[in-house]
Amino acid sequence: MALPVAESLHVQQLLELLAVVTSLPDEESAVQGAAERAAQALEAEVGAVLFGDRVGAAIGFPAGTVPVADLRAVADGGRDWLDVPGLDRCRAFAAGWGGTHPGHLIIARWDEAPFAAEERGLIRGMARLLELTLTTLRTLRAEQAMRERSELQAVENARLAESLREQQRLLIHVSDIQRAISRRDPLQQILETITVAAADLFGDDVVGLWVRDRDDPDRARLLSAVGLPTAHLPAMPLDATGAVGEAMRQGDVVLVAGYGHASPAIRDLTGDRLCASMAAPVHENGAVVGGLLVASYEPLRSYTLHDQQKLGAFAQNVSLALTDAHTLDKVNRAARDTLTGLAGRGPFLEQLTEHLAAGRPAALLFIDLDRFKPINDTFGHAAGDHLLVTTAARIRAELRDADLAGRLGGDEFAVMLRGVTKLDEAIGVAQRMVRRIGRPVDLTGHTGHTVTVDASIGIALSSDARDATELMHHADVTMYDAKRRGRGGYQVFSRQLLDATDARLFKPFEA
Amino acid sequence: MSAGATGRRWLAVGRSDSPDTRTAAATATRSAMTGPEPKLVIVFSAITHDPAAVLDGVRQVAAGVPVVGCTTHGEIGPGGPTDGTVMVAALGGPGITVTTAVAEAVAGRQREAGAEVARCAEPLADQPHRVLMLLTDGFVRDQESILRGVYSVLGAGVPLFGGASADGWRMTGSHLFAGDRVLSDAVVAVAIASEAPLAVGVRHGYRKVGDAMIVTSSGGGRIQTLDDRPALDAYLDRLGAPREAYTDVEAFRDFALLHPLGVQRRSGVEARNLSTEIDLEGRTLGGGSAIDHGALTWPMIGDETSILEATDGACEAAISGLGGPEPVGLLTFSCAAIRATLGDDGIRREGERLEKWAGGVPFAGFYTYGEIARTRGIDGFHNQTLAVLAVA
């Protein structure tokens, strides 16, 4: 993944703000520092922080002339401009936060163009960080007061130190994510950096980064996780994903406690042990594109307001990092098939091409279900979908981690066996696959029936092909040959088979 | 020596290379005081002159006119840059109004000092065009905080322009002039209001080398590590610096002068001078105001071509910023580090370039230890740049 480093500018700016505000000793200086740093990052003339009608900080106006009502109007969303003495009208944008001490960060810039989507995302991220910092400072202050009154000084000192360490950890982790992007780490590694960071920040059993499916916005896919299996997991309906789906729907941090009524999918994923979870939306250019989940198997785990703010701030950072790197765009381009969770046709061909172009060998299996269409037509699409999902799972069950399975469309599948150069090895896989796919499939939930479908498989080796396209063609014609010879079997590619096929296809018309 | 005027506003400059300080100052001032109603005298004096004698000489000629100024690392004006001279610019005419202010004991209270001097611009709030010119002591750290203090009083509506005093590379201390006083650790502010436009331009001529290095640890205004390595070594390694730059302060300074550190900003990369706060023992880097954890940085290089392009860019921005009226004169503050990069021949060609842009109207300035130019956003303190004020 090649990313121009400058693309991580917004994460850098957020980090700089975080570094500045966390180094300031009290609320007043943190608010002033945030207003200045936010204005600086956006090269804006005005930076202001408003708590209700009280101005926490405002720069850009001559002393004594801060237009509180105008700032309030921007915070309320009633206008998107400010008049700044000595300048023409400035474009303005406000990002707010709720909780017990709600406020707004307001930025105005002397520019004809409005703030770009990623700049609005940056301002939202900064507002989140300011909220988090202010909460920490208030907690510290309260603890300080308690400590002075209490005999439990040692305990309070420890808590004090822990709060500071948490802030520092957040900074370090966001920095790690930024560096992963700047270093051009592989996409999956960046995503794992994010989930591992969240696991460290919250210390919970489960962390999951979900992304909304581009083709079906009511579904989400688990891209990276700690404590959950991600391999080959299909996209799930938002309803079935619990807190993360709700966070994506509400566009805010969501808590879920008690999983007695969790979806079967969640129960399966977590071994029915989930006790509490919290999720925050992940944005790209202002739109919710995913969610970050932390969850616990501890019966007594509950998430505090501070936890919620921390997750919100971290998710906002993740949003910026992903947006800066166009990461989600790359995820979508590498999309898996929505239904089965296998690689889609495009990504499968891309990976096959890359593998062969690197001079590495492979065997290719081209798989087609026999009699799928009549079952789909007879029992309906839901039954057909279930059959395809079951087939995909059975194909995967025969593969090593290094292999790649894809759904090419309809009931056609393909498998790349990386590094396989011997026919015997490929044949062994195909034989097991034919047997496994041919087992009965329970469709009673859909039709009241159990059905059986067979698979026809064509096998080809990369040593017989010049490139991925030719290898796919070889496996394809071989699969049709297998189908011609009777269902539920496999065939191996040969040059004669190709010639015969070509002869059939290109037989000249006879006069 | 050289004068530009519209009838209601004028700017004129004079220079003297007389070895006698009072004579030099008086001669230069006399050459500059050419118009009616002089409102301000700005003095740029070589560090080799006795500053008190400079003021004496100036005030002999310009009695009753506000005097501001500073010592330099070279004086800029028509005919090319010089060392060892006294350069004077005078500004006046009925269309111009000037107020001045001074803050002393600035170190440690930069922001407060900035807010104090900025108040001198408040009485001129009803004037159509204003700029606040600041002359600061180049040996005071965290100059950006001075500008933050100014901004807190004036807001975004008043452009800032100025420079930090220099001492001819002696690194022992520089001086500011304010009225009849010679000051150090001070800020001198001049609010200039005019019935005609005033415009500021600023550019640097350096480009990035290689991939970004991330600030992985910083504090106390210094960068501790870049990409988790001691910052000083990471910086020198990237540029293939000579071995002595790793261990010798002078060698590091010479090298760093030519290789600023670029810091990513929204509209481009800002150049920071690393040559004044050297820490060979701790292996850290200091570049003026703080560069924070997480910042993307690059070592930078420049050459005569790229720097002279920046000269063109700064002049063009200032002159076109007037919005049509012709300038009556320019103030041109160029970084001492640019002088190091260009060499003596190079700064002569920089002077020729300035002369071309001035188009016959006078210009004056000096080689600084930092330039001030703010028209957009809140930042305004620069390194390695040319800052230009065009007066219409």
Automatic annotation (TrEMBL), chain A:
<protein>
    <recommendedName>
        <fullName>GGDEF domain-containing protein</fullName>
    </recommendedName>
</protein>
<dbReference type="InterPro" id="IPR052163">
    <property type="entry name" value="DGC-Regulatory_Protein"/>
</dbReference>
<dbReference type="InterPro" id="IPR003018">
    <property type="entry name" value="GAF"/>
</dbReference>
<dbReference type="Pfam" id="PF00990">
    <property type="entry name" value="GGDEF"/>
</dbReference>
<dbReference type="Pfam" id="PF01590">
    <property type="entry name" value="GAF"/>
</dbReference>
<feature type="domain" description="GGDEF">
    <location>
        <begin position="360"/>
        <end position="495"/>
    </location>
</feature>
<dbReference type="InterPro" id="IPR000160">
    <property type="entry name" value="GGDEF_dom"/>
</dbReference>
<dbReference type="InterPro" id="IPR029016">
    <property type="entry name" value="GAF-like_dom_sf"/>
</dbReference>
<dbReference type="InterPro" id="IPR029787">
    <property type="entry name" value="Nucleotide_cyclase"/>
</dbReference>
<dbReference type="InterPro" id="IPR043128">
    <property type="entry name" value="Rev_trsase/Diguanyl_cyclase"/>
</dbReference>
UniProtKB/TrEMBL annotation, chain B:
<feature type="compositionally biased region" description="Low complexity">
    <location>
        <begin position="21"/>
        <end position="32"/>
    </location>
</feature>
<dbReference type="InterPro" id="IPR019494">
    <property type="entry name" value="FIST_C"/>
</dbReference>
<dbReference type="Pfam" id="PF08495">
    <property type="entry name" value="FIST"/>
</dbReference>
<feature type="domain" description="FIST C-domain">
    <location>
        <begin position="231"/>
        <end position="375"/>
    </location>
</feature>
<dbReference type="Pfam" id="PF10442">
    <property type="entry name" value="FIST_C"/>
</dbReference>
<dbReference type="InterPro" id="IPR013702">
    <property type="entry name" value="FIST_domain_N"/>
</dbReference>
<feature type="domain" description="FIST">
    <location>
        <begin position="37"/>
        <end position="230"/>
    </location>
</feature>
<protein>
    <submittedName>
        <fullName>Uncharacterized protein</fullName>
    </submittedName>
</protein>
<feature type="region of interest" description="Disordered">
    <location>
        <begin position="1"/>
        <end position="32"/>
    </location>
</feature>
